[in-house]
Amino acid sequence: MAKIGVFVCWCGSNIAETVDVKRAAETIAKIPGVVYSVDYKYMCSDPGQDMVKNAIKEYNLTGVVVASCSPRMHEKTFRKAASEAGLNPYMLEMANIREHCSWVHDNKEEATQKAIDLIRMMVEKVKRNKPLQNIKIPVTKKALVIGGGVTGIQAALDIAAGGIPVILLEREPSIGGHMSMLDETFPTLDCSQCILTPKMVEVAQNPLVTIMTYSELEKLEGFIGNFKATIKKKARHVNVEECTGCGTCWTKCPTKVTSEFEQGLGIRKAIYIPFPQAIPSRPVIDEANCMKFTQNRCGICAKICPKQCISYDDKEEFIEIEVGSIVVATGYDLMPTSAFGEYGYGKYPDVVTSLQFERMVCASGPTLGDLQRPSDKKKPKTVVFIQCVGSRDPEHHKAYCSKICCMYTAKQTMLYRHKVHDGNAYVFYIDIRSNGKNYEEFLRRAQEENKAQYIRGRVSMVYQDGPDLVVEGADTLTNSQVRIRADLVVLATAMVSPIGVKELAQKLGIGYDQHGFLTEAHPKLRPVESATAGIFLAGCAISPRDIPDSVSEASGAAAKVLGMLSKDELEKEGVVAIVRECSCTGCQNCIRVCPFTAIALKDIRDKAGNLIRQVANVNPGLCTGCGTCTPTCPSRSIDLQGFTDEEIFAEINAMAELH
Amino acid sequence: MEEKWEPTIIAFVCNWCTYAGADLAGTSRFKYAPNVRIIKTPCTGRIDPMFILSALERGADGVIVSGCHPNDCHYNEGNFNARRKYIMFRALLTQLGVDLDRVTFAWCSASEGIKFAGLVTEVTDRIRKMGPYTEFKQLNQDAR
Lengths: 659, 144
Description:
The complex is a heterodimer.
Chain A: E1 4-9, H1 21-29, E2 34-40, H2 46-59, E3 63-68, H3 71-84, E4 92-96, H4 98-102, H5 108-128, E5 135-138, E6 143-146, H6 150-161, E7 166-169, E8 184-185, E9 190-191, H7 192-205, E10 209-212, E11 215-223, E12 226-233, H8 248-252, E13 256-258, E14 267-269, E15 271-272, E16 284-285, H9 291-294, H10 300-304, E17 317-323, E18 325-328, E19 333-334, E20 351-353, H11 354-361, E21 382-389, H12 405-419, E22 424-429, H13 439-449, E23 453-456, E24 459-465, E25 468-475, E26 480-486, E27 488-493, E28 495-496, H14 501-508, E29 535-537, H15 547-565, E30 569-572, E31 577-579, H16 589-593, E32 599-605, E33 611-618, E34 638-640, H17 645-657
Parallel strand pairs in A: 1-2, 1-3, 3-4, 6-7, 6-18, 7-10, 18-29, 20-27, 21-22, 21-27, 22-23
Antiparallel strand pairs in A: 5-30, 8-9, 11-12, 12-17, 13-14, 15-16, 19-28, 24-25, 25-26, 31-34, 32-33
Helix pairs in contact in A: 1-5, 2-3, 5-17, 6-7, 6-15, 11-12, 12-13
Chain B: E1 9-14, H1 18-27, E2 36-41, H2 49-57, E3 62-67, H3 78-96, E4 103-107, H4 113-130, H5 135-143
Parallel strand pairs in B: 1-2, 1-3, 3-4
């Protein structure tokens, strides 16, 4: 026989002003099964909680209803109190008579009647509640970081600093990402390589970090604390352990290929390391261009390698790893420039992207920092920078702001003036966004000390006239047309999500938006978590960010990983689905609708081991307790604990009996 | 019938969006009709059409089903399942002779306290005009 205790809270005057709490408690006391019903000024206070605890002990209560504020506010508080008094916490329910009643109604009679109804519904529910146990999930104390740019490197370093082994996964032959391509960085003009390389070395030498380059995630199974990832290790054709990175192979390789790292401005060989500071500094053979693969000739590298590290027969490998948590830091790409015919990219060699400009001024770039324009190696005397190329253009391209272009363009005008002291730098802009520490000051330096000339307006077209480019645009401040003869045009193209990120997100079971940027669990309050438990996000994978933001997020995500992996077991609520196997027909309706693939078929066998039938089986580790499965079951064999059919029908009936 | 008849509305809402939206209506002190009784489920995907029939049979004059907006579901796609179910269920309700105006399906997010308040008042006013729902209740009583 149920023995229910009911505690009606006044919440000072918040409830008591509109709801006759005394009458509510007295009316509820008459419901069969209610053995104790009382009202009190502040149930959440210590004396209030003590009332609950004492009543549980004194009356041997089997269930408790606290009628007060929203369960989002104090359900935890009261369930903990119940638990301390020896009652299963799931045997306590809250009736929300503040947010859903006293605060939204004026008429005391009506509000009191409603409060009584709400309490009565909860009493009927709690009579049918069953004690539930929280689910304990074992945890693999190892993390996977996907993406080896500065964000991924920082996340891996911070996780390792907490004593957790990390695997750092990178699909390119080297870690370093886009930051390794930059010349100097705003707003301090630090040389990008000078600050990144030590971090790359640090992560490579950290005994807790395993770097897997030229590798991609093939498949992910499992759930929070217990992921099983299959990694595809692409064929490198070089024995990384034996190779010393001496460079003989790529010096002798006869095949020249345009370098991706140099943004097409330099060349590399078919066996190559992407850039001198690459980690690992071990080459990789580019199968698409190597003559051994395309024409089955050459083979020079294998012949001359002093350590015989090169194997053309290398095949891709699949490696299974178990991790407890994952950080996705897959970064960005620049928008393909083919989209901008009006600016003549691809048609005129002297129209370049901002990333190409970085390589043109970088001391380790193809010209070793000597700024030459691509067409005739001339030092450009006039450079036009065009901002918002593809960004903030909802009609044609991306509606969002790429966030970093204003600042790097200001930086590039400075880098340019440092190379060409009497050069003219023009910047076409829509608005200037310089909201970061020391950003506005930096921008002013570009404009005032380095004489960058800012023109507010857009460029309509760029065309060639003799050796020069002509930039036609509008100055919307003076309301006039502008025509500038330029030697070089630099396009600040939009940041977009990298190729393959949607497929990756699908493998991981995490969300992404219409642009392919990964979706946070909450944009403000859970900015580094995905909606899937155990998978965290950082950096430009979420949306355009600058280096400081990306690095902060990396540390944030790492802190989340460490917090999660600091426990031996994870605990989650006992609100999960359960199957009544005796009546389950194995129709698989529930399996089809489950958003978390938490349900699978289970074999039922007789003593001899013969398969009799198959039934649905819920993995409580994966089940999130949404209950989508429950109404789809034709034989009512799957139910959601904590929100069972019986419990909800009891609420409906309780409500109806009064009307 | 009673002198001053007031409709009874049962609202089945999801925990993450509409329940929180109703909480927000409370914290914002948006007033609405006191006729509604909220039943919380984790997700609109949990809501069984039988709940709605049962509510009508047990004396509700109108039913609200409300959850997260499409693509905002805490469980990714539970609300899509709910929507699919509801589309099927509407046809069944028509067959059963239930006026579809008695069952309202809505999206109301955790930040839409004002929308929730408006929804309840609007549905209450509509049901008040339609009068009490007695058909199922009558059947239920006859059967007893």
